What does this fold into?
Amino acid sequence: MTHVSNPLRDPRDRRLTRVAGPSSLVFFGVTGDLARKKLLPAVYDMVNRGLLPPSFGLVGFGRREWSHDQFKDFVRESVEAHSRTTFREDVWNQFATGIRFVQGAFDDDDSFIRLNETLEELKESRGTQGNHAFYLSIPPKDFESVLQMLAKHELAQQKDGKGWRRVIIEKPFGHDLESARDLNKIVEDVFPSDAIFRIDHYLGKETVQNILAMRFANQIFEPLWNSNHIDHVQITMAEPFGIGSRAGYYDGVGAARDVIQNHLLQLLALTAMEEPISFKAHHLRTEKEKVLEAVTLPENLSNSFAIGQYTSGYQGGEVVNGFFDEKDIPSTSRTETFAAIKVNINTRRWNGVPFYLRTGKRLGRRVTEIALVLKKSPNLLFNNSNDAGQNAIVIRVQPDEGLNIRFSSKVPGTQMAIRDVNMDFVYGHSFTEELPEAYERLILDVLLGEPPLFPRQEEVELSWKILDPFEKYWAQHNIKPDEYAPGSWGPESANTLLARDNRVWRRP
It folds into this structure.
């Protein structure tokens, strides 16, 4: 692919040196929190870093009766409040000349006629060459209306064989296997499969991508990465805040569907996959799909999960709401704000190694990590030591991105006493470059047409096949989530889940 010269690009910035070609990006749901706090700032940061060419256009589509200038003011406010890079007036002025707004509704023909006219105008004035990506940052219930309108007004098809068309879909990809298949049919009726980009922003994080580099570029890790040495694996995503104003989305979805089905199972796949023969999309995806297809559930599901709901109480010195105190949560809700499950992987590498996945709101701190806990040392010399735990390799996805290795060391003194110590690699200490925001990498990959970091439909369906039996069990047995205090690490049943296997959760 030919790189486009861009005068805004900082020559000292060696990260993501690929530069997108002429194109326009259309945001549906542009006034939502995701667009305001993440997507619009990410686009500006890309412009600021010289990764988007002058022949780039940004189009917002929404119900508000805004002029182009009013929308520009909204974008600027979002950028100044949330962008990662320094705000530069010269960069903004160049970027702002390509910003447009289309007022309309998702099911209104006139709105999409105006959108078509706007994109044609950008093609002429900015030189976008008719290349368009449509970002659906909207509820899944609105996908069908938008997609049908894009098809009806020939916005999803190439014209005269020129220009590409792509669609970006935010999770959730359905709420179970059946709905995921229905959603995929709706999308593939309009866009070909290679033009569909399903966003899981965790896959754009540097530390997630570093799993592959750490495993396969270093001889010190790969020999340990199997059931001969690994006792079990814990994958955790914890958040210290509650659901806030997201009751309309969260109630009925819950922690398992919101996080385990996508983020945590993707982390599991990257952790457990075999080495791909290249970084091409189909090679990476094939290895991840092999892992997800090999996941098996314990025979007794009743002993293989824990779910909970946070109560009110003190957290961080402040009184916080319980789940049922949040706005619009019904008193009869069985939606879980904490979920933990146990699964196995039926492969030669991982036979007998359980994987424990947990996520929750109002937990002790914000952290996402993958912990590979090694088997206990067989050395009889130290079997009586109470201070030595199991060695662990911990990949910190966020915050303090990096890698931690826990091992035993002799305590200084006249006696042979040992204690666990930590060896840390932190991105911020080892590299002068800042970590790019996940959405920067993912949006750039969409504009370049490079799909390795995007799960395809097969991965989505395999993930639902893993989670659906738990969801059905909870519904069929009318399982009520256990209570847990804010600032804790979940309900006591989560500890019991591991205690049955003579194991304990790590304290992140």
Q: What stands out?
A: Residues 23-200 form a domain with the Rossmann fold fold (CATH 3.40.50.720). Confidence is low (pLDDT under 50) at residues 1-16. The chain has two domains: 23-200, 205-375+456-499. The radius of gyration is 24 Å.
